[in-house]
Amino acid sequence: MLPAKNIFSYRKYWAERFGVAPFLPMSRAEMEALGWDSCDIILVTGDAYVDHPSFGMAIIGRLLEAQGFRVGIIAQPDWTSVEDFQRLGKPNLFFGVTAGNMDSMVNRYTSDRKIRRNDAYTPNDEGGKRPDRAVIVYTQRCREAYRDTPVIIGGIEASLRRIAHYDYWSEKVRRSILLDAKADLLLYGNAERALVEVAHRVAKGEHPKDIQDLRGTAFMRDAVPGGFVELDSTELDTPGKVDPHPDPYAMVTPSTCETAEQAPDAPPPVKVVHLHREIPRDHPREMTVVRLPSFEQVKSDPVLYAHASRLLHLETNPGNARALVQRHGDKEVWLNPPPIPLTTPEMDALFDLPYARAPHPAYGDARIPAWEMIRFSVNIMRGCFGGCTFCSITEHEGRIIQNRSEESIIREIEEIRDKVEGFTGVISDLGGPTANMYRIACKDEKIEQSCRRLSCVYPEICKNLNTDHSALIHLYRRARQVPGVKKVLIASGLRYDLAVESPEYVKELVTHHVGGYLKIAPEHTEQGPLSHMMKPGMGSYDRFKALFDKFSKEAGKEQYLIPYFIAAHPGTTDEDMMNLALWLKRNGFRADQVQAFLPGPMALATAMYHTGRNPLKNVRRKGAEIVQSPKGLRQRRLHKGLPALPRPGELAAFARGPGEHGPRRSHRQRQAPPGAAFPARRHGRNRRRRQAGGPQTPPPEIPHPAHAPGAVGPGTALPRRRGGADQRQNDDRINRIFQD
Prior knowledge:
InterPro entries: Elp3/MiaA/NifB-like_rSAM, Methylthiotransferase_CS, rSAM, rSAM_horseshoe, rSAM_sf, UPF0313, UPF0313_C, UPF0313_N. This protein is of the alpha/beta class.
């Protein structure tokens, strides 16, 4: 990978003399106890402050402290006034703002847009302690508190909204969060490298707005500066010569698109634009910028939105990515290339910082569920090269795996054993974004730097990927030998298509590291949705299950696989969901772990959901693949509910389709036997009688459907509706499936 300055090699700031804080201060009293008169940097977060390396603010805060800065934390402030944002006084350098470990909208709303009652990152699991679009709200309050203090935003919420993006909750394309938050600088991805550089340069007198040469940053510009070669990609591909990629390992397949037919209502013809233009051979790649379609274009044209999404994801490899620029009105949103991944020594030093490994004492005995979940777990790596289209891990952490050394991991296990209260000898997880990508990388560094594939394992495992699991096997064995450790479990998601390449690893995992159940995520059984997810087919699952059962039997253990599935994903049809339900029935599963697809910002699957186009392929205005997405609350609920509990009554409604379900009925009406009579609703009269203390109209007596004559049950044919031959065939087909 490209060289980069070690983040721990900077000359430390003068405030290093104050030493290390037991916890980063959250109050003036704590600052005074440390001998501070002010904070150099104040971090504002939507999560409770837990001083543990699994929490972003703890990592960032301790890293800045290691650089010599005095760092304060404002956790979950009251955003309805400015007072909480003045709690620690004015920072000498800048505010750092994040929504927390999760996007604030994902954290607060379900995939059906219902408000969640709880929040795992809040004391006592209490919901409602952070605002919607927390980064924007917090930044505005910081400005109100101290108008002339710079504000730098980061974290997953800011990262995934760095350009124009589709917002599922408002059902519209929103502009870059930089404009809405009015921040001086945005740091995207794992931002340690950029943040350390920014902090030292601001300490020397630079303003964050003037720092425009760092990887992993996004900011506003008035115009493209001189010296850059601009590649105009604001229009769609059209027929024409496609220049060869400058590197044969780039894995870009040249292709052409068909000519769009002219029609009275068709959009204006697009200009011929080559994505790979001839540029001067001596022109450095870092002085090239790709122009994306503007915010105004992608907002009004879904096809151009899909095109922009494809371009963005093709420019994510730090080894060959170019800068991107997108016009927003009279301003330019500029994205520098992604940050260089941290080296193993840097990862070790980052995780060896003096974390208290506990929630801040201000929370007292309050229970923080997210902390309870990870208190005995160890993160061994970062990144994921799976490239699943519905997931944001790859977009945020990158495809190149950043590994810790065995020694650093063993030290953390020993620290958990010695410092964390309540440790019983069980390490709950030894993993990361994916359980089994530790020390797995491209065989050749040059190929890795040149590659432009979106996934190393789809549609099949790349021949250049080293799939050797021996380093992970050795780590497991060392971890089990640590004195005081009775059991090491693996709870992170397992990439089973990768695991089957190493039967020895599967044997080690199944024999020693499964606590009775192993959760894996096939996500679906049908090729249609799987191809739009970039997930492997069920053949890999079958191979893994055979190995899992074999090694469980050899170990004399009764262990089970628990599959996870996604419903209502783009590319999923009603037929696909019925086939999934049939597979579950045939294999004896009742899939309780089914979640409906949630279109998060910047994900490729979200682009499919919004536009109906497939950005995994060249985007065309005509002749391109149209991606159907289950939309509307009723259809999404049916897709989610079908695999979980196939009931014949639900299947009939499912087969009739979302537009033919008939009038809306109450739960009692749906459960009643055919022919049951219901009186007209009289809510108003009953309400008035309740208020007056008079008698109320009793509800009708409805027998339980399981005991009623003619109740639907196993072996009972579904009643046919008057809907023509097609409807009768649908009902008959569903009956046959679930009576087999």
